[in-house]
Write a structure and sequence with these properties.
Length: about 375
């Protein structure tokens, strides 16, 4: 395993980060701990990513269970040996059970403080190494496969919490020793630039953004590479790439019928999640990537993960699995380096399928 400095921070993170969003839903807490033990002890992973709303799909009865698995794991480790990342949920009127039953979650100073205190209590630790805003408080029009930015929708959206208020609350937590560094997630170039500009302009008031956790894979590249990548390179922000397998689609497992004893997938548990991946040009792109992998003697999973793991635009790739066997395959893929011939073939497919998830158009109701 290799380690890199995360953005402008002092955090040395493994190039692979353990995602935990299945713990407490698709995985038991004990299975989650077993996965973390395997990743840390056998493969040198040192970074964990969780969130207050996990597991996903999130609901009142399971919210927070993921953190309990992470807490159990932390009890067996020296705290300074683990880089622990968590996230504050963004604005939503759907997660009504969070933060004392607020009708609408938002990234206000009060709700940031409440979220962090509750996360620390569940995790059984006094601090987190990285706190991220899970998604923007403002309307962006680009999250989770939604259509692109619409100025009229932005005008109709509720007024967002000011950037300054969010940063001031984050600085308060840093000064209190509850948070070491701060980051963003599902952000746009505008958000990355605005947060970074304010921190640069008022370094005594606001903390620097050191990381951004966005979707990035062979299927979801253009949004990051066309804008966010340049911003992060210039202002010192490291990419924590989530869904390097495109929600599992790049493993090509959804091209075959599951066996009767197969665990329910995220697509089955999360209605609507798969539309952007399966009802679009993604199917054609995945087939071509699978063919490349086959020609070069590797699995589709290994191809997709090796591409992400050793991508110079990525600080660390966040992976997740529902079985130890899946996790081992994912972690072993780190030892694969793609040849120039393979990279050329990938580039050829990308030229033809630059934005396949955006090609999906939901059928109109009759």
């Amino acid at each position: 395993m290799d380690y890199v400095r995360l953005g402008g921070s002092d955090l040395l993170v493994s190039r692979v980060t353990m995602g935990t969003m299945t713990f407490g839903r698709q995985n038991t807490l004990e299975e989650g701990v077993a996965q973390l033990n395997l990743a840390f002890d056998e493969y040198g992973v040192n970074c964990i990513d969780t969130a207050e709303m996990y597991p996903v799909p999130t609901e009142a009865g399971t919210q927070g269970l993921t953190d309990l698995a992470v807490a159990q794991f932390l009890k067996t480790r020296a705290r300074e040996e683990v880089i622990l990342c968590t996230k504050v949920s963004g604005r939503s009127d759907r997660i009504t059970w969070l933060r004392g039953g607020n009708a609408t979650t938002c990234v206000s100073a009060a709700q940031i403080r409440e979220s962090v205190d509750a996360s620390l209590a569940r995790l059984g630790t006094g601090y987190v190494d990285l706190l991220q805003l899970h998604w923007p408080d403002r309307y962006t029009g680009t999250m989770f496969g939604s259509p692109d930015y619409d100025p009229s929708a932005a005008k109709a959206a509720p007024p967002p919490v000011p950037f300054e208020e969010q940063l001031a609350a984050l600085q308060e937590l840093v000064e209190a020793g509850k948070v070491r560094h701060v980051g963003l997630s599902n952000e746009t170039p505008y958000g990355l630039m605005r947060f970074s500009q304010l921190a640069e302009q008022f370094p005594r008031l606001y903390p620097r953004i050191v990381a951004c956790q966005n979707s990035y894979s062979l299927l979801v590249r253009k949004d990051w590479e066309a804008g966010c990548a340049e911003v992060c390179d210039k202002v010192g922000v490291g990419l924590l790439a989530y869904s390097p397998l495109g929600g599992g689609v790049l493993s090509a497992k959804y091209s075959a019928k599951p066996s009767p004893d197969t665990r329910p997938s995220r697509f089955q548990l999360f209605p609507g999640f798969q539309d952007r991946y399966l009802g679009s040009q993604c199917e054609a792109a995945v087939t071509e990537y699978k063919d490349i992998a086959s020609r070069h003697g590797m699995s589709a999973t290994t191809l997709a993960l090796a591409w992400a793991y050793h991508n110079p635009k990525v600080a660390s790739s966040i992976i997740g699995a529902t079985t130890l066997e899946q996790l081992e395959e994912d972690l072993k893929a780190y030892d694969t380096r793609l040849s120039s011939d393979v990279m050329d073939e990938i580039a050829d497919v990308y030229r033809r399928y630059q934005d396949p998830t955006k090609a999906y158009k939901k059928p109109k109701a009759p």
